[in-house]
Amino acid sequence: MPPSNNIIGEDPQLIDPENGDYRPAPGSPAVNYGCQTWGEPLIQIHNLPSISPKKDFGFRRSLIEVSGEIAGDEFWNADTIRVTGELSILSDAVLTIAPGTVVEFNDFYGIHVLGTIYSEGTVDEPILFISRYPFLFDFDEQTMGSWKGITFDYPSALNETSLFKYTTFEYAKALSSDAYGGALSIKGSFNLEIKNCIFRNNYAHYGAAIFTEGFANPVISGNLFYNNYALVAGSALYFLDSYPKVINNTIAGNTLLNDQYAYDTAVIHNLLSKPSIQNNIIWQNPTSFFEPIQIREGKPFYTSYNCIEEGYPGKGNISDNPMFFDFADCDYQLSELSPCIDSGFSSRIESYLEDCDLAGNQRIVDGSDDGISEIDIGAFEFQPYIGSENNNVESRVELMIYPNPFRLSSERTGNNPMLRFSLKEKTNVDIKIYDIKGRKVDTVFTGIKNFGNHEAIWKINGKKGKIASGIYFAVIKTDRNSSARKLIILK
Ligand SMILES: [Ca+2]
């Protein structure tokens, strides 16, 4: 069963394909599709810096081609490292990659690690592993537009600890001959940390983002996994005979293509494994299994303080909607109403975490304003006054809604809910309505507003039949911050 969100048969309207510019032109049906836009930053997460390949606008950029074996210590320091063949890091060798480097794979090649790899980006200068031709990629069995991922093939336990930090992996595949672990295949590695990274648009038969086996015990903390596809099992993670630490990740919107109704597959698929799964959001990862489980064969004793769709046994686990900032736009930061704020448990796991979250914000802050700083669930820590300089409480934007509750019956008189807000400065304003499942229902306003008091009307009049009674959330975003307000619609 192919993914259902492909655009088929439409001219993608690329800018200049004959001369190698395959970016979609403005107006292309591919623009803003699949939560990414070529030619624009690939990801625009609220308060998270853009991550995109550095663009070549005519001036010369540094580019180094690599393949073969790395036998000693090597430092990749260029705008672009182009991998033009299979690459191996031999035992005792150490490869270090400079922040901001784009590692692009010319064809379906991979990196095999027997030594050590340091891929330590920063919030402002992440490292990116990507295919050179991502526009050719699709979630299928073809190799074009993809690369083979990074494989740790039983490296020596005496090696230095390998590290991936603020590194993005995308368009990696694991196909039939070695179908495990799209981006990372970790076999018997005891010294590996994967922190504050992004895994998206990867594909494998088993473990679209990461696969582990052979008693591997990597630390997997603070990462975001979204839009990965597995053909058989483990649309994000597949753990075989291993015991990784899976802490404070956000795992959302990954898909299992397997349509076998009776096969209990899941986004985290365990087989003979004992992972520690703590403080993670595991949400909206579809599978065809009749029971919509998110974790297969987890151990409840080691599964705690997570937000898991459909719930899971274990201390502190919740199953409430995490209230992402904007699930549809792949913004997985927490909105003000999220039940994940301050609902994690930080004791004993702080050594596995970075001081900052994936967006570069301080990790453990008091988001619920109760005087106690506790860690949030997921890869992003809610910042009570996000983006406001000097944490100035006065620059917060608040929505007031009148009347609230709102009666649909009053619609006959032409009434609509009125949203009032006050701005301290001229700013972009975006107001959207979400239902209780976090799905966008409507856009009330998007544009620029001046300093002062404002009103916006949610015109549900004329939409009768589409707006049902129930609980909704109105979310306002400005350049500096955001907030949400509950709105109750009655019949
Ligand atoms: Ca917190």
Give the radius of gyration: 23 Å
Total domain units: 2
Distance between the termini: 40 Å
Question: How much helix, percentage-wise, in residues?
Answer: under 10%
**Arithmetic mean of pLDDT:** 85
Largest sheet: 17 strands, parallel
Q: What spatial form do the alpha-carbon principal axes imply?
A: globular
Strand content: 35-45%
Number of helices: 0
Beta strands, count: 42
Low-confidence spans: pLDDT under 50, at least 5 residues? 1-5, 31-60, 386-392
Ions, cofactors and other ligands present here are: calcium ion
What would you call the structural class?
Answer: mainly beta
Describe the structure.
The strands form seven sheets. This protein has a 17-stranded parallel sheet that branches. It is built from no helices and 42 strands. The chain has two domains: 34-352; 390-490, Immunoglobulin-like. 0% of the residues lie in helices and 38% in strands. It is mostly beta strands. Bound molecules: calcium ion.
